[in-house]
Amino acid sequence: MADQQPKPDLLAGVALDAIPASGLLAGTIGTRDAVLVRDGDAIRAVGAKCTHLGAPLAQGMLVGGELRCPWHHACFDVASGRAAKAPAFDPLPVWPVAVEDGRARVTQAEPVAPPRAAIVLAEGPFVIVGGGAAGFAAAVALKEGAPRARVTVVSDDDHAPYDRTILTKDYLDGKFGDDRLPIAQTDLAGLGVELRLSTAVARVDRARREVVLADGEALPYAKLLLATGAEPIRPDLPGADGDHVRVLRSLADCRAVLARIGTAKEIVVLGASFIGLEAAASLRSRGLSVTVVSPEEAPTAAVFGQAASDAIMAVHRAKGVAFRLGREVQAIGAGDVTLDDGERLPADLVVLGTGVFPRTALAEAAGLAVDDGVVVDAHLRTSDPDVFAAGDIARWPDPHTGRDIRVEHWVVAQRQGQAAAAAMLGRPEAFAAVPFFWSKHFDLSLRYIGHAGRDAEVAVDGSPADRDATIAFSRGGRVEAVATMGRDVESLEREAAMERAVAAR
């Protein structure tokens, strides 16, 4: 392997013409890695790694004063280092830069203190039902915008908010431990948020503007956010309630699976959803025998297209994952699974990847408009202007497709939580984020932006088999979604183009 060129010492300074056309130059400040950023006439220096999962920001992209992460599209304000858009919440360090005689030089080894944001004098009380992606993001945004406000998060989970996306990936395969579970270094308790764990909500009393808990306690609200998420679907099969049959949605679910793999030799995953396939990859990475059963002949093809589906399947098969495609399960036994063709697969552990459904019962009982999700406007308001909804349950008017959509993506949920919080604070802006998600299968990662229906026209550039491809999904001549493999910057470019297209309308 050729030696890498040493990174320039930004304290010593670099010539302005050494900064690439991207505006991003990786360098060092003492013992720390940093990125020199040229944004128009402004030169700045910020931390080198995304505070979400450590992506190298020098490989990202500058868009309108924002530095965007190449892996998961987090956005940072380059002037302040502030995490402007999820999935990052913690800021980047920022250093002062002087420009003299055609050279840029960082003037001190220690980063400067971030500027304080303007404080909104909001009292609340604000109540958030749900401690997942949307609920966490909304709580952080509310306290950052209104530090004096009373914010309460009610969650039926036993654990403080955690990064659900790693459960089927790096946590299940053993690369990450419990220390990587928090969504961010930002701690809700440290912000003054009251977090009620293992707490069920009985109903929402809109007339009294109260959230009534299962124990009868009533929490008053000025504004309420429903972020109740989704529930795993359990198939109606004989034996589906067995103790060795597990869903994989929560941290408790994941730990229950991990508790059984020490003695399990044969694992069957029912369903080739992204959750199912990611779980299959993680369990196989531990050396376990894994078979995926799915009624689909081409898993993920409906989302990524046939060529990408073939590439994903090839990676799984090369790693030893077995498949029974085009097959239905008839029954789950104590140690096996019976398929519709009579085949019996040994199964010490059965993992269900059979999809989820939105948890809209609370909203329905409260009399809010529900239609394949809780109906919200562009500011995430429900049919009650004092009640908002975000995340997996929200069905919103998507400006990119011109359709009302509901998606179950982690980053969408977080950004909707941030947008809902802004509206709850009286600073509404139309939610216009481009939907984004990523999926990981062994060492293959895919990025997906936008939202396309099953009837979209598919155009492939490059080679999915070689993990170097862009797959565009169009309707009526307009690109509605793009999937990429090995082309992270292009994914960011396509996202920015979609944003510009909406802004220009």
Automatic annotation (TrEMBL):
<protein>
    <submittedName>
        <fullName>Pyridine nucleotide-disulfide oxidoreductase</fullName>
    </submittedName>
</protein>
<dbReference type="InterPro" id="IPR023753">
    <property type="entry name" value="FAD/NAD-binding_dom"/>
</dbReference>
<dbReference type="Pfam" id="PF14759">
    <property type="entry name" value="Reductase_C"/>
</dbReference>
<dbReference type="GO" id="GO:0005737">
    <property type="term" value="C:cytoplasm"/>
</dbReference>
<dbReference type="GO" id="GO:0046872">
    <property type="term" value="F:metal ion binding"/>
</dbReference>
<dbReference type="GO" id="GO:0016651">
    <property type="term" value="F:oxidoreductase activity, acting on NAD(P)H"/>
</dbReference>
<keyword id="KW-0001">2Fe-2S</keyword>
<feature type="domain" description="Rieske">
    <location>
        <begin position="11"/>
        <end position="106"/>
    </location>
</feature>
<dbReference type="Pfam" id="PF00355">
    <property type="entry name" value="Rieske"/>
</dbReference>
<keyword id="KW-0560">Oxidoreductase</keyword>
<dbReference type="InterPro" id="IPR036188">
    <property type="entry name" value="FAD/NAD-bd_sf"/>
</dbReference>
<dbReference type="InterPro" id="IPR016156">
    <property type="entry name" value="FAD/NAD-linked_Rdtase_dimer_sf"/>
</dbReference>
<dbReference type="InterPro" id="IPR036922">
    <property type="entry name" value="Rieske_2Fe-2S_sf"/>
</dbReference>
<keyword id="KW-0479">Metal-binding</keyword>
<dbReference type="GO" id="GO:0051537">
    <property type="term" value="F:2 iron, 2 sulfur cluster binding"/>
</dbReference>
<keyword id="KW-0408">Iron</keyword>
<keyword id="KW-0411">Iron-sulfur</keyword>
<dbReference type="InterPro" id="IPR028202">
    <property type="entry name" value="Reductase_C"/>
</dbReference>
<dbReference type="Pfam" id="PF07992">
    <property type="entry name" value="Pyr_redox_2"/>
</dbReference>
<dbReference type="InterPro" id="IPR017941">
    <property type="entry name" value="Rieske_2Fe-2S"/>
</dbReference>
<keyword id="KW-0274">FAD</keyword>
<dbReference type="InterPro" id="IPR050446">
    <property type="entry name" value="FAD-oxidoreductase/Apoptosis"/>
</dbReference>
<keyword id="KW-0285">Flavoprotein</keyword>
